[in-house]
Amino acid sequence: MTQFRGKFINGLDKKGRCSVPALFRTRLAGEALVLRRSTRHPCIEAWPASAFDAALGSKSPLDEPDEDEDFKAYALYSDTVEVSPDPDGRMILAADLIKFAGLTDSVAFLGRMECIEIWEPAAAEAQIEKARQALAEKARARAAAASNGASV
């Protein structure tokens, strides 16, 4: 399984081109990326095509989807775009994805282990800080609970 770690800021030109960070390109080893809107955050998820395809599973054309499967298919798969970075690592982001993520002249690439997230840089920093604060709060709560349990 390919793992992506780290944060990188790269430029975004007026044609929607940006460069995939060299470390991520190395880990992709020439594989295409499947781009889609995140359902949880205002960012673009970039999945190695093989990981995205493996997650889909197989279905028979005779399988009748239920309503939840229908919603999932429309929300998660109909807006996907497959891109292959050129030899220099550049790729073009679709205009609707750029608008969704609020991107302007630069992008933040965040490694999320199995996928890459593409954010507006200030929004990425805010999300990282929010995550740090949430983890610190949970650690404080666990410590308080452990000290309360020890004194009982």
Describe the structure.
The structure is a single chain. The chain is of the alpha+beta class. It contains five helices and eight strands. The chain has one domain (7-120): Chemotaxis protein chec, CATH 3.40.1550.20. The longest helix is centred in the last third of the chain and has 30 residues, at 121-150. The relative contact order is 0.22. The mean pLDDT is 90.
Task: Give me the Rg, rounded.
Answer: 19 Å
Side-by-side strand order of the widest sheet: 1-7-8-4-3-5
CA(first)-CA(last) distance: 46 Å
What's the level 1 CATH class? Alpha Beta
Percent of residues in helical segments? Answer: 40-55%
Number of domains: 1
Order of helices and strands: EEHEEHHEEHEEH
The name CATH uses for the topology is: Chemotaxis protein chec
Spans where pLDDT lies below 50 across 5 or more residues: none
Molecular shape: globular
Domain SpoVT-AbrB: 7-51, 80-123
Protein name: Transcriptional regulator MraZ
InterPro entries: MraZ, MraZ_C, MraZ_dom, MraZ_N, MraZ_sf, SpoVT-AbrB_dom, SpoVT-AbrB_sf
Keywords: Cell cycle, Cell division, Cytoplasm, DNA-binding, Repeat, Transcription, Transcription regulation
